């Protein structure tokens, strides 16, 4: 019986391993989904700003994130809320009073982002 080998420890070898890794509910699909949720020039700055303060108005975020346009801030806030990483709180007041805060899912993402930062620091770009 020929032994099945792999060039890399994480490469799936058997069909079952491939399904676990590459199938529609596999690791690749789940990691890809999270990366998609974070894609966009301003999403990470928004999230990290919300990690620092529990709740912020749009105008505060715009002031604290240099270079972001109102259009992109609004678009990324909407997308982050759609992906359940942040929550939009409308106070139902006139003039409009809306604040954003991290959702529970957004707070759970912080250790992942900090681990990613640690990985980057310990593996500098060449």
From TrEMBL:
Keywords attached to this entry: DNA-binding, Transcription, Transcription regulation
Family annotation (Gene3D superfamilies):
Winged helix-like DNA-binding domain superfamily/Winged helix DNA-binding domain
Tell me which domain of life the UniProt entry assigns to the organism this sequence originates from: Bacteria
Gene Ontology terms, MF aspect:
DNA binding
Q: Does the keyword Transcription regulation apply?
A: yes
- Cell cycle: is it a keyword of this entry? no
Q: Which InterPro entries match?
A: HTH_HxlR, WH-like_DNA-bd_sf, WH_DNA-bd_sf
Query: Domain HTH hxlR-type: where?
Result: 21-126
**Which PANTHER family does the record associate with it?**
TRANSCRIPTIONAL REGULATOR (PTHR33204:SF29), TRANSCRIPTIONAL REGULATOR, MARR FAMILY (PTHR33204)
Please give the name of this protein: ArsR family transcriptional regulator
Taxonomic lineage from the root: Bacteria, Pseudomonadati, Pseudomonadota, Gammaproteobacteria, Enterobacterales
């Amino acid at each position: 019986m020929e032994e099945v080998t792999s060039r890399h420890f994480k490469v799936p070898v058997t069909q079952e391993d491939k399904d676990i890794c590459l199938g529609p509910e596999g690791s690749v699909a789940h990691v890809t989904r999270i990366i998609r949720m974070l894609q966009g020039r301003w999403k990470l700055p928004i999230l990290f700003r919300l990690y620092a303060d529990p709740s912020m108005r749009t105008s505060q975020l715009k002031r604290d994130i240099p270079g972001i346009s109102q259009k992109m801030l609004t678009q990324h806030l909407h997308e982050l809320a759609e992906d359940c990483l942040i929550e939009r709180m409308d106070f139902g007041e006139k003039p409009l009073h809306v604040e954003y805060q991290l959702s529970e899912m957004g707070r759970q993402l912080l250790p992942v982002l900090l681990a990613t930062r640690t990985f980057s620091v310990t593996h500098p770009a060449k």
